[in-house]
Amino acid sequence: MFGLVQLPRTIDKAKAVVHGNVGEYNYDCPMDQGLFEFLGIKGEDLLDIVRTSKSDAEIEAKLAPIVRKHSEAEIERWNRDWTEHRPEGRSLEAFLTMRSQIAPQRTDVMTWPDLLDLDEKREVPVRTPA
Q1: Could you tell me which of 38, 63, 82, 91 has the fewest CB atoms within 10 Å of its CB?
Q2: Of all residues in the chain, what percent carry a pLDDT higher than 90?
Q3: How far apart are CA 13 and CA 42, in angstroms?
Q4: DSSP codes of every residue in 10-50
């Protein structure tokens, strides 16, 4: 949505929170917070947008002016940084634990976006070291 790779997933999680069926998903996690920081909003702001919207089109209309504060180049750079960022510290520990449960043979997977894709049964190309 609007060319932001994390936005649709975060909106889906916000909808689940609003409807009380978030399940195992973690809304306002560090990945969501990175998106919120880029957009200049807080997790509660997106929840308010979802709560007060009657449709996906209305959610999109309310987000449009927020997203459009950024140029295509800024969005492209944020997407690249987000998809290529490798976890560190405690995030790395959680990442490695989750990867060992989901796909222990995929030691080439070193980013959260790729790991989440694997977890949700999407194809993730085999990465070769740079």
Answers
A1: 91
A2: 76
A3: 14
A4: HHHHHHHHHHT--TT--TT-HHHHHHHHHHT--HHHHHHHH
